[in-house]
Specification:
Elements: E1 15-18, H1 23-34, E2 40-41, H2 53-63, E3 67-70, H3 78-83, H4 85-105, E4 110-114, H5 143-163, E5 167-172, E6 174-176, H6 189-203, E7 207-211, E8 217-218, E9 220-222, H7 223-236, E10 243-245, E11 251-252, H8 253-264, E12 269-273, E13 282-283, H9 288-293, H10 301-314
Length: 321
Amino acid sequence: MINYQVDVMEKEAKIYVAGHRGMVGSAIVRELRRQGYDNIITRTHAELDLTSQVAVDDFFASERPEYVFLAAAKVGGIVANDTALADFMYENMMLEMNVIHAAWRNGCRKLEFLGSSCIYPRMAPQPMPESCLLTSELEKTNEAYALAKISGLKYCEFLNRQYGTDFISVMPTNLYGPNDNYHPEHSHVLPALIRRFHEAKVGGLEEVVCWGDGSPLREFLYVDDLASLCVFLMNNYSGNETVNAGTGKEISIRELSELVAHIVGYKGRIHWDTSRPNGTPRKLLDVSKATALGWTYTTELEDGIRMAYDDFLNNPMRAER
């Protein structure tokens, strides 16, 4: 059942955005400021280690934010998730539990937890409704990250049920856009493709190697569209069940690779290395709940990739991360 939050954030409300330097957090800050919210609190990792319970407790006791967007996370692509399982589980569970718990203890009016569509089962029904959570096994290549995110959203739910908090969660599909991570090993598929094809074009390479066979289907959401939904939900939704964030449209990795190559201007061949893993066969979110609430995305994939490539070109240091 969808519940509407009548009380919206006042423009002068004290808002903490955890993870404000990341792609999602920075987009939320942009959207908040665009809508006239100026009392935004941020801390860098050097200023506040979210995996330290003492540090987080002290921060919340001192600042006492009224609203929290929890966008901080240790993130990475298929290689990083599959090789640093313990790190991904520990760091994500620690930081999210610390922030959510401190928000509750210090009387935060509302918290929004940002998860990931990888929380849903590997062979979930397509498109994936919010209700399919925990109905079968997860994709093994990102199981640790998924378990951490499931724990975060469930902790929000349990606090709501036990203590009457107003903590919600949103589960985005694959994201891309300004301030993305283009690291050659630790990035997600779309920014990885942007970097790979750009370097191939600049280097005059005749061939680019891509993982798998190109058959998996994926959905992509421009990060500024996610940010608009995040602020919208903070003002319009309350409930224990998460809300999916996506476009409701999917594209094969093969078609995506060809589209990125076209936008970047790479003219060479694409070779598919079938000895490498494909990952989950299909990941399409059911976005009917967000639609029923009155929100929809605005940025089409080709337009979004062009803007992301411009961001990559104009911010060369992004490629070093």
